Every structure is written in structure tokens, then in C-alpha cells.
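Weekly structure sync, notes
Attendees: PL (lead), two postdocs, one rotation student
Agenda item 3: pending single-chain targets
PL asked that the sequence for the first pending target be pasted directly into the notes so everyone works from the same version. It is reproduced below exactly as submitted, 132 residues in total.
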Amino acid sequence: MKRILIIDDDAGVRESFLAALTGRNYDLEAVESGLAGLESASKRRPDLVFLDLKMPVMSGVEALQRLHDICPGVPVYIVTAFYGEFLKSLKDVRNRGINFDLARKPLTLSEIRAIADGALERRVDTNPPHRQ
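Predicted structure, written out during the meeting:
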């Protein structure tokens, strides 16, 4: 079962993601901060992360960089309404070789499902099982 980690300080956003993805054979965890997300990812590697940018204490950009250190190669979808504020920081992160995708809030339930299904399907295609 693929594991999806949702990191967003807004409880309503977390609930929307959970509502969209529950019952789709995913192991879901939703946390309220970058620190909680890093703790979760260090205990159990996610297969996909949905990440907010504008959060108190630790921005999504910092969380993205630290997630990359903990779980290199894990697909991250930054979901935000404030990407313009973080554009320079995001370019710097990308120039360091940290990959991510951007999606603009608000997302519909079907958009959330399509992103999750597509990202995890691509991951399966690019990481075939080891054969002996």
C-alpha cells in the first residue's frame, strides 16, 4: 500500500485531502507542520508528499529541503496559493537538484485524486520491482 503524507497547517485543507483520498487503498497521514512531517517521514518513508508552503515555524521550502535529505527522490507536490512569495526560494531549491511539482490551491477532490494517482503510477513505472 502506497503511503501519502499531507503537510499543511490548515485543518480544513488536511481534511479535504483525507476526504479525497480515503478509500483509495492509500496509507494516509496528515500533519499540521513541517516539523511533524519531517518526524513522520523519518520514521516511515512516504511514497508521495503533499506540502504547503506558507506555514508557521518552518516554511514549506525549508521542509522540502529537509525532506530531500531524509527521503531523497520522494515525489513532492507543493500545494499553495502563495507560490509567488516563494518563487526565488523555490528556484534556488530546484537549482540545488531538489525536484518538486507545484499545484495551486484550491484543488478539487478530483484534482487531488488525479495528482496522487498519477504521481504514484509514475513512481511505479520508473521503479520496477527487482528481478533475479
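Discussion points:
- The first strand starts at residue 2 and ends at 7.
- The longest helix spans residues 109-126.
Action: rotation student to compare against the earlier draft before next sync.
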